[in-house]
Amino acid sequence: MKFFKMTYMALALGTNLICAALMVIASYGYLISPIRSVVPSYLGLAFPFFLIANIIFIIFWALQRKWWFLISLIVLLACNRSINDYTPFHRTAKEQASKDSLTILTYNVNSFDALTPHTHEHPNKIIEYIARSGADIVCMQEFACGDDRSMISEKQIDKGLSDYPYHIFSEKSKTPYSKSGIACYSKYPIIESREIVFGNSTYNSSWLYKINVNGRILTLINNHLESNKFTSGDRELYQYMIKHLETNMLGQFKERLVQKMGVAYKLRSIQAEQIANEIKNAGENIIVCGDFNDIPQSYTYRKVRGKLNDAYVATGFGPGITYNKNMFWFRIDHILYGKTLKAVSTHIGDIKASDHYPVKATLVWNDNIENKNNP
């Protein structure tokens, strides 16, 4: 019996050490570019599992009255920033929004729910949601419209979002019947716009806008970074693997999903570096938002975020999942902002008309910060 207990404890300790090490790699893997190695990026996806495992080990060793609980406790303290980025705990907004506040909505609209038309009798749910959101500026990804009467048209979208007189739709791809890309709809004048050109992508894009917000010139970067390009079959395979944990399908999983993810990680890392260079020259009146297709533990997210603040991390509660299909439960849609702004609330909508949830943040101007790089 004593030998069995010692073996059991040794196995538990060994597992604890492995989970602790993996937690550290998942937390700090963003320091390694996917160009050098994609392994830390894959481990980052498992961050919540490593977090839960280490919490369980703390409780387990405390009940056993073993000092080994310090292993996971020290690891959690060392990974505190990543934990807070993954699941912040803010129960209420720190302060109320003022008349001078600015509300931003970012939403991957997924072709407006398969190009569903928007009419007075049968409104498109996504258009209806945005129109009622109260947002001052709306950034959309996978914005699409068609020429066929059975599809939502750009005219229908503009009419449904008539509260936004300033808007730019930037076409990225086109079929004989429809076109898609990225769009910004604003209640304030858009005085300048240009694409941040990605030489490595034919579908995804980022756009930089200059917006005059009551005399303040705001730089806004709207992003749809490299997609994993999973097919419906790939998503079904992933969902089946998660539910059944069948090891005999690992080869197929690696061939179909892991390889695509590896390519996308590398492409996104290059795109993130381009965006980071734009941010350096933009001053502090800046908001960077959109579908990053990457989580807070990723190289892409950290590279883009840099010294910016994250609205959800500053005001949100819990993991804040923004993707809602096929058990891909991650926060990949983000709103970042510079020092002259301060987030007072962030809300993730629960509408499921798209495969993404919308993210809305209300910010106030921090006039105590001098912005030397903006007029």
Automatic annotation (TrEMBL):
Keywords: DNA damage, DNA repair, Endonuclease, Hydrolase, Magnesium, Membrane, Metal-binding, Nuclease, Transmembrane, Transmembrane helix. SUPFAM superfamilies: DNase I-like. Residues 105-356 form the Endonuclease/exonuclease/phosphatase domain. Pfam families: Exo_endo_phos. One of its GO terms (molecular function) is endonuclease activity. The chain crosses the membrane at residues 6-30, 42-61. It comes from the Bacteria. This is Endonuclease/exonuclease/phosphatase family protein. It comes from Coprobacter tertius.
